[in-house]
Write a structure and sequence with these properties.
single chain, aminopeptidase activity, serine-type endopeptidase activity, WD40, Peptidase_S9_cat, Rossmann fold, mainly beta, 639 residues, 8-stranded mixed sheet, 4-stranded antiparallel sheet
Length: 639
């Protein structure tokens, strides 16, 4: 048996964005390291055969097809499956350009040299055309700055916008159609018959305002003209076309109106009549991906702890297969007869699996062979009811080598982020506070899915709008009490940890009760009003907190659900971890909690990670998070 070390976790590599060739015989994916050691994240492109008759074992079935040190992403196939287009910054790190890999001779060619870099690309039915998403190139005078330049930033002026551009592969010329005014282009999808492009735009690129301003357009490649189809839902994404009796339909996934804290839904726009319908209304599941085929599109649903794959038929979603845990980054051939996706098991991280939509799926990659000798803690699903009768679920991970009858154990509860996220029944091993990392040190770990999360439909998700920390918190407490009653958790050795919204729940918990002997607040929210004012998702945070500072003279509703309002009650030792350059939950949130705890004389440790954002990326910092997390709980729960 091999011991689980922090190095084993952070030095892993994971497949990303698998893409099936149209003929279904090959699949390309990006291979990305868990951590970064330099300034840039170095990724690679790999090819794998999908033919079950000649595919060797997964650990030898793939081959790397690029050799340069660079960040490589967004593999896209030509219609004839002979050419692979992708983004790479090999020529100028941090500035991705479109490259072409010809499979017949293995040659790679750079196709663009756009100074602002290319952010997206879509091969079109016309083999000589490639649609690009790219910001405007810097003006010539801006490229010749002097030391005494005026570089004042005027908010609202000259803000970056991704625009639709067309690359003529025969000439190498890039043109920019004069359409969509000054709107930011988010996503493109060509009609399966080679017709117009569906284009999703926003008024701006910033996360606070942009996602609420989506519009759909049709762009005619022949005439160069566009038609406005009207507004799109909040946070619209995942465009897909399909034919029906009344003509072409265009679908997407977006938040269910009217709130910003809401479950997702599949919206269906009949292009000719402009009739828009919610095709998943009332379902106890949440759509996460919509994938275009030549006929009815495929829909991935988060369904409790697991995943459902369905076909969007005229009468509604038709279930095709059920999958344990998660099913991510779904890709399909144009006919929809073969699919591939990222999925794993309770004790194996996600790999690329391929097969028919009705299943089963066959693993064709093995990117974490170093974990084969690791013994993990037993993981099992939990189902229970909240105090008000709402059905809830979650996961329990037992200490490695122990059974439930060996309890009670020290228990660490780890609320998930979001809050519109979920724990799925997959391998729980990550650089941030994770169940298997703590289980290897002798802890039982509770992973709750309280209301507000994904996987149980719109109403379940919408229940925390303006009420974070209320019933959401009692949902978690009910689960902890259940584990105490079952003899699994030691009531005198309870800890709580979380990142992002999970960090909020940790900060909230220690202001509500003294039951926890140790807490970890990672990138956590402590003041919703301040977050609405300074975070990159301000309006979303205001929906969670219930108000903003400009809502009139206080006290405000968000004060009653902000952990900082209860700082005088905290007696639990708190470990605060935060990235110095976090724009999602800015560092000021952690500083605020640190100063309050210092003021009230509460034992705590405050760690700031330079150069890091909302997620910690540098290898040394990830190692520190993992080791510091276990040491913090060891000192207080395992004396």
């Amino acid at each position: 048996m091999t011991d689980l070390t922090a190095e084993l976790v952070v030095d892993g590599r994971a497949p990303q964005t698998p893409v099936l060739a149209p003929n279904g015989r090959l699949l390309c994916y990006a291979l990305a390291p868990t951590s970064r050691t330099g300034t840039h994240l170095d990724t690679e492109l790999w090819l794998a055969s999908t033919d079950p008759t000649n595919t060797p074992a997964p650990d030898t079935a793939s081959r790397r097809v690029t050799a340069d040190t660079s960040t490589e992403s967004q593999p896209r196939w030509s219609a004839d499956s002979d050419t692979l287009f992708f983004l790479s910054d090999r020529a100028d790190r941090g500035t991705p350009q479109v490259h072409k890999l010809t499979l017949t001779d293995g040659t790679t060619t750079a196709l663009t040299s756009w100074r602002a870099g290319v952010t997206g690309h879509v091969p079109l039915a016309d083999p000589n055309l490639l649609a690009l998403l790219a910001e405007d190139e810097p003006a010539e005078q801006e490229a010749r700055f002097t030391d005494d330049r005026d570089d004042a930033i005027v908010v609202g002026e000259c803000e970056p916008r991704a625009r639709l551009r067309l690359l003529d592969l025969s000439t190498g010329r890039v043109t920019t159609p004069d359409v969509f005014s000054d709107r930011h282009v988010v996503e493109l999808r060509q009609r399966p018959d080679g017709g117009p492009l569906a284009v999703l735009t926003q008024a701006g690129a910033d996360n606070d305002y942009g996602p609420r301003t989506g519009r759909l357009h049709l762009f005619d490649l022949t005439s160069g003209t566009a038609v406005d189809l009207g507004p799109a839902g909040v946070e619209a994404h995942s465009l897909a076309w399909w034919p029906d009796e009344d003509g072409w339909h265009l679908g997407y996934i977006a938040l269910t109106p009217p709130g910003l804290q809401a479950g997702t839904a599949v919206f269906d726009l009949a292009v000719d009549s402009r009739v828009l319908r919610n095709r998943t209304s009332g379902l106890p599941m949440c759509p996460t991906e919509l994938r275009q085929t030549g006929a009815a599109p495929l829909v991935v649903f988060a369904n409790g702890l697991n995943t459902t794959l369905a076909r969007l038929d005229p009468i509604g979603p038709t279930t095709l297969s059920q999958h344990p845990g998660r099913l991510d980054d779904l890709t399909t051939t144009p006919t929809g007869e073969v699919i591939a996706a990222l999925t794993g098991t309770r004790y194996e991280p996600a790999n690329v699996h391929v097969g028919p939509p009705v299943g089963p799926l066959r693993k064709i990659t093995d990117t974490r062979p170093e974990l084969k000798g690791i013994t993990f803690g037993t993981q099992r699903p939990l189902a229970y009811r909240a105090a008000d009768g709402l059905d809830l679920d979650g996961l329990l991970v037992l200490p490695v080598g122990r059974t439930a009858s060996d309890g009670p154990f020290p228990l660490v509860t780890i609320p998930h982020g979001g809050p519109y996220d979920r724990y799925a029944d997959r391998c729980q091993l990550f650089w941030f506070p994770s169940a298997q990392w703590l289980a290897a040190a002798g802890y039982a770990v509770f992973l709750p899915n309280p209301r507000g999360g994904e996987g149980h439909g719109h109403q379940f998700a919408a229940r925390v709008a303006g009420r974070v920390g209320q019933e959401e918190w009692t949902d978690i407490l009910t689960g902890i009490d259940l584990l105490i009653t079952e003899g699994i958790a030691d009531p005198d050795r309870l800890g709580i940890a979380g990142w992002s919204h999970g960090g909020f729940m940790s900060a909230w918990a220690v202001g509500q009760t003294d039951r926890f002997r140790a807490a970890l607040v990672g990138a956590g929210v402590v003041d919703w009003g301040m977050l609405a004012a300074t975070g990159e998702n301000g309006q979303f945070e205001a929906a969670l907190g219930g108000s903003t500072g400009w809502s009139g003279i206080g006290p405000h509703p968000h004060d009653a659900v902000s952990p900082i309002s209860f700082a005088s009650r905290i007696r639990t030792p708190v470990l605060i971890l935060h990235g110095a350059e976090d724009t999602n939950v800015p560092l000021g949130q952690a500083v605020y909690l640190h100063r309050a705890l210092r003021h009230f004389g509460v034992e705590h440790e405050f760690v700031i990670y330079p150069r890091e954002g909302h997620s910690i990326r540098e290898r040394a910092h990830q190692l520190d998070v993992m080791r510091r997390t276990r040491a913090w709980f060891d000192r207080r729960l395992r004396p």
